[in-house]
Input
Amino acid sequence: MAQTVFAPWTDPDQKPIIEFRNVTKTFGEFTAIHDLSLNIYEREFFALLGPSGCGKTTMMRMLAGFETISSGHIFLSGQDIGAIPPNKRPVNMMFQSYALFPHLSVWENIAFGLKRESRDRDQIAARVEEMLRLTRLTKFAKRKPHQISGGQRQRVALARSLAKAPKLLLLDEPLGALDRKLREETQFELMDIQEKTGTTFVIVTHDQEEAMTVASRIAVMDEGHLVQVATPAEIYEAPNSVYVADFIGDVNILQGRATPQGDGVSIDWAEGQPPIRAATDTTFSPGQACHFAVRPEKVTIDVERPDRPNTFRGKVIDIAYLGNISTYHVELAGGHRMKAQMVNARRLANRQITWEDEVWVGFTDTAGVVLEE
Amino acid sequence: MRRFVLIAVPYLWLLALFLVPFLIVLKISLSDVALARPPYMPQLDLTQGLDGLLTFFSDLDFENFVFLSTDSLYWQAYLSSLQIAVVSTLLTLCVGYPIAYGMARAPREWRPTLLMLVILPFWTSFLIRVYSWMGILSTEGVLNQVLLFLGVIDTPLQIMNTKTAVYIGIVYTYLPFMILPIYSALEKLDESLLEAAEDLGCSRMEAFWLITWPLSRNGIIAGCFLVFIPAIGEFVIPSLLGGSDTLMIGKVLWEEFFSNRDWPVASAVAVILLLILIIPIVLFQRNEQKQREAEG
Ligand SMILES: Nc1ncnc2c1ncn2[C@@H]1O[C@H](COP(=O)(O)OP(=O)(O)OP(=O)(O)O)[C@@H](O)[C@H]1O
Ligand SMILES: [Mg+2]
Output
């Protein structure tokens, strides 16, 4: 059976589960969210990514009902939720600080939301047991939050927010406090849980790698605006602006002037250097200022001049050894620098390129993206 | 050795300021009244050696305690003190909790000022403050004047010299002891816990009863003991604001000592009061310790 690709945002017949329509949020004089519109679809794992203070938490708090909307509307399954208090929304939030109730045991913390729904006891117990099993906490059911580890606490917070089977689960930097290994494990656990429960997740994170790993789509934010909303691959391979290209991953950004040529452009970018030839769908007027962004792993480094559309001569000034890969910092004639990445297929001693070597860097015409000013 | 000294210091302190006076009072309570100075018998005379010690101990008896149990006045005084202490503790809680809650929810920069205001009354003498309540509550007092002027009442209210005046006095005097521990418990409460509770389907009211109240419980317990323990032996407030019908054990104690000059009976009253108080004091200590363990 061929697996259908999960991409409801490409289907115009799909109704979004969440719709932000021209939402603005101000705190006094300060505008935290500017006229923002966004659709999130059912079963999505949606990541909000952006630098500190860009308004991620504010978006979550508006969804959960802890902040009023200054203007605009938020719809949840077609219903305007602006006037609905937090306790009446089918939305649960996992707090950045976990906010576990310190006087209640793990079991009671998870049961807390269920008890508010006046379900019968056996049902509650069954649901709590299920959540404990899902988050592998069965052994700790009787402990108080201060008697378990940080990672376990975080799982309790997750179990508590999942217990009511909300339509929408909000996770505000859920993994911020965990060490790298535990974080990676938990990321996969989260994806697994999302798959099993079919809940729509909105996750806030600082960590772009985390967003790339878990999300179906990523929204990159900057000062209360959405800069780009797209799948991780699109965000990475086809950023729509220098801001996004620079924010996600490592990148070489070159500034220049574009001249249309064939089905692409030729970019004059530095005195004494040949122009860059790049394919692009955007039409540029002759001499228009532009940026060219190319990821280091798409740039090759060779001793002999390679047969590629773009090649530049330079000298290795630094090598960052990262185990599986190495990043070479190459200084081109004229002082420009370019990063090139290579997989370390050979052991250290056998590698031929080293500091101060004269080398060639090169990339194809489809390796990078041309961005308008 | 150093540890021993460190532990010994508080114990020596307790010994000098609590145990020794208690033993003296206990001894007086076992003695008989006498027209002498001090007004009780026997006196310990160490010059007579072992014989003197033996006669001294053989002269001590439980007469006074037997007397206390036969005269209903004392029982009633204990019971009435207990009742007044319980009622005024609950009243203080009802007044103090909202104040502490409001303080803990006030903007951060206001809180030191509010705390200051709570403690401010301690800067004037306790007696002066109780006397000024007489000025407020008496039939010609400020309160009656205002109410008469506003036409709320036609004849002055008789508040002075009633139990009501005693309750007002105790609640007023001990309010800071209730507010401070509750405030310190509420101030530590993390706001996001209440948001989490609401997020999980609680109304504001439910969130208060399920989260705020239990998490301030230790403060409530501490505050109640801090009010209840001194209130039960209170003497100044009932004698200045209360009437002849407000029977409190502190007043009885005072009269036995200074009007009747019956030191042994007065001491017996004091010993029993202490025994009654030991139970809440031990409970209070236990609460404090539990709290420290929970925090540590
Ligand atoms: N209650 C408030 N009053 C005034 N300004 C606020 C308030 N809450 C947030 N802000 C401001 O709104 C902006 C967005 O805040 P928000 O908490 O949403 O940032 P964030 O993207 O979550 O940042 P971080 O990654 O550091 O958590 C910030 O500049 C912040 O100072
Ligand atoms: Mg935040």
